[in-house]
């Protein structure tokens, strides 16, 4: 045996021993989580038991990121723990997560990033169907896209909150990389048509105008549907992400063709319960104001006076009348915070209506 072989043998021996310890520790952790479940059941007899605790999971992931000694990055370590927690929670109760489908969409990728892979993910054909599935109790939580850094707000999601009783329980951001994809069987054919979702076409507009000018662009209901069609129809391509490419066995012709390298989509987690404070939270509200001079100033002034940071303000037409508006506002803080309570009380004095959509942990992953 050479020196190199001897050294490799020793290192592999060490890795095997470490793996054994990791396995024992993960099993001990899983037993603890099971114990937590039985405590929750006995202390909550007869009432709804909330096995999934978003605020606690956010705290665990934040601590892991902060205390991670390296050489793995904090993000990487948190992702590993995300999966460990997901598996532990599945022992307590397997969660059903509705998402904007079909399978292979970025929304599914966001759902798995947020909840880990030990959940049952349920694809639904439209954003309102995801809301209905959670409202009816058929799914524990839902995941819907809410804004993209290149293309702006997903208005359909915002408008759903006007009528839905659901709460926002979390947020997750996903870097969106689009590829031009073809079926390996049709690789040598000339492409005469490209399928994609309207949002993805918009996020790749400049690239398409420069590199595939004049080729017909056909909008379909999702990237995954685009990939499915490209897999079947000769002479076509799709713009979609890695998950859809893998699912339909497509090959990448051009990689990461989004116009902005930081192209990111933010998704919301919707559920039926309010989430207690995690220590680093955000809140969302819908406010309709009287249509009078200074209305927007009056709405924003309390945030300034109490030093609360706004992270987003969007205006949507009110369903109650022509030229009336509803403001969708995100800000830092939790409704349990004293400062937030004061601001909301002031806003409520001036507003026609104030709807609290929820306070939730700022996305960790
Ligand atoms: C174990 C618990 O239940 C679930 C599992 C968690 C975990 O594995 O760390 C954390 C929060 C809950 O979603 C808990 O509430 O502490």
From TrEMBL:
Key words of the record: Amino-acid biosynthesis, Aromatic amino acid biosynthesis, Coiled coil, Cytoplasm, Isomerase, Lyase, Multifunctional enzyme, Phenylalanine biosynthesis
Annotated Chorismate mutase domain residues: 2-96
An individual GO BP term: L-phenylalanine biosynthetic process
One Gene Ontology term, aspect cellular component: cytoplasm
Site note Essential for prephenate dehydratase activity, residues: 265
ACT domain span: 284-359
Protein name listed in UniProt: Bifunctional chorismate mutase/prephenate dehydratase
Naturally occurring in which organism (per UniProt): Marinobacter lipolyticus SM19
